[in-house]
Write a structure and sequence with these properties.
Keywords: Aminotransferase, Pyridoxal phosphate, Transferase
Order of helices and strands: HHEHHEHEHEEHEHEEEHHHEEHEEEH
Number of strands: 14
Helix content: 40-55%
Cofactor: pyridoxal 5'-phosphate
Shape: globular
Radius of gyration: 21 Å
Largest sheet: 8 strands, mixed
CATH class of the largest domain: Alpha Beta
CATH superfamily of the largest domain: Type I PLP-dependent aspartate aminotransferase-like (Major domain)
Oligomer: single chain
GO biological process, one term: alpha-amino acid metabolic process
Organism: Colwellia ponticola
CATH architecture of the largest domain: 3-Layer(aba) Sandwich
Bound molecules: 4'-deoxy-4'-aminopyridoxal-5'-phosphate
Number of domains: 2
GO molecular function: pyridoxal phosphate binding; transaminase activity
Strand order of the largest sheet: 2-9-8-7-6-3-4-5
CATH topology of the largest domain: Aspartate Aminotransferase, domain 2
Length: about 375
């Protein structure tokens, strides 16, 4: 059977493919965006998991928008105004796919920062969107480029990860958030705010969502993969009620609804008296690993390799001198350390800046130290 045109130019995700190579014995993986599974709050979930066997009705077909008690909880947690609603998704990744299906016609223009989240490049690629890239500054997208893009092209959506970006870890400043919201309103561009790492802040104060400055012009994608577990596959989209209704129609066709038993377990977890303590411990563990990795980099890698400092999230972006990053990542794997080359995060390969994405949440301090030793050898060979 001939593949659909939309699939012909789409590559399978490099990261999902490298994960199996990265799990070979002896390989230290800094490649995936994986939370540490020893942190999964299974003890806090144990009672609701065992109670499930008495709750037959949860195993019946459910509402497409989600399990009503969970939706009610989210309405008050996220202080949604009466004109807004939400839909539970099978991971925030599904939310992104629903948005593309609901709002993008082939050829519509979508703006993303370069580099950008690979899963979003895939979704908008499959939707046959025309992807426009703007470069990223240390405090968010380059505003001059963004405004020129909005002013000169017919842009439908701007997709972004303002809190601890994947892959760079960048967190947008307050001023950038306000300006982007203003530009999106001025040029009537929908803003898609993807915030799976928002709760993983290790330093500094939480900043308002960009969407809080343009609530009727935006959709927020949340994920419970990093603060609960990825395997429950639950995310949420919030926004104007008529936009959420459109997503609901698409989700009916996609999978009817997300797992109701898992939504009930998530609700119990989020309301558990010890859940905040779980988040405190999670942040402390990840922050100590971040500090260990950045210290090792400063100590062991040549000075022309530069790691940005981040206040949260799961990634360090290691900028490198001019080199073939794909060959470097391949050679790193052969030397027992899995990393992701910057090339996979760019829509336009001609604009790739040499760098590696390093994940610090799923390796111990000892493994991070050993990984940097291995990386130092490989960088010597390639750069
Ligand atoms: N958006 C971004 C920026 C991500 O990094 C990820 C996962 N790594 C997702 C969305 C998808 O997350 P989920 O597990 O909720 O589908």
């Amino acid at each position: 059977m001939k593949l659909a045109t939309s699939l012909q130019e789409i590559q399978p995700s490099y990261i999902r493919e490298i994960l199996s190579a990265a799990s070979a014995p002896g390989v230290i993986s800094l490649a995936g965006g994986l939370p540490d599974d020893t942190t999964f709050p299974l003890a806090l979930m144990a009672k609701s998991l065992s109670d499930l066997s008495n709750k037959t009705q949860l195993f019946q077909y459910g509402n497409t928008a989600g399990y009503t008690p969970l939706l009610n909880y989210f309405r008050s947690l996220y202080q949604l105004p009466a004109s807004h609603s939400s839909i539970v998704c099978t991971g925030s990744q599904q939310g992104l796919d629903l948005i593309a299906r609901a709002f993008i016609n082939p050829g519509d223009s979508v703006v993303m920062e370069a580099p950008s989240y690979l899963g979003a490049i895939q979704v908008f690629g499959l939707a046959q969107a025309n992807i426009e890239s703007v470069s990223q500054d240390p405090d968010g997208p380059n505003l001059d480029e963004l405004e020129t893009c909005f002013a000169t092209k017919d842009i439908k959506l701007f997709y972004a990860v303002p809190d601890f970006h994947n892959p760079t870890g960048v967190c947008w400043s307050l001023a950038v958030r306000q300006k982007v919201a203003q530009l999106c309103q001025q040029y009537k561009v929908g803003f898609i705010e993807d915030v799976p790492y928002r709760e993983l802040r290790y330093k500094g104060d939480f900043l308002p969502l960009v969407s809080s400055f343009c609530p009727d012009n935006s959709l927020v994608l949340r994920s419970y993969s990093k603060i609960a577990t990825p395997g429950i596959r639950l995310g949420l989209v919030t926004g104007k009620a008529d936009w959420i209704t459109a997503l609901n129609t698409v989700k009916q066709a996609a999978d009817l609804h997300s797992s109701v038993p898992m939504q009930a377990v998530l609700l119990d977890l989020l309301q558990h008296p010890d859940f905040d303590e779980h988040l405190v411990k999670l942040r402390a563990l990840y922050y100590s690993r971040y500090q260990a990795l950045s210290q090792q980099i400063a100590l062991k890698l040549p000075s022309n390799c530069y790691a940005n400092s981040v206040d949260g999230g799961m990634f360090i972006w290691l900028s490198l001198p001019d080199c073939d990053v794909d060959a470097l990542a391949q050679s790193a794997l052969e030397h027992g350390v899995a990393v992701v080359p910057s090339s996979v995060f760019y829509q336009d390969r001609a604009t790739v800046i040499p760098a590696l994405r390093l994940n610090f949440t799923n390796a111990s301090v000892e493994e991070l130290s050993e990984a940097v030793d291995r990386l130092a050898k490989v960088i010597k060979l390639h750069c």
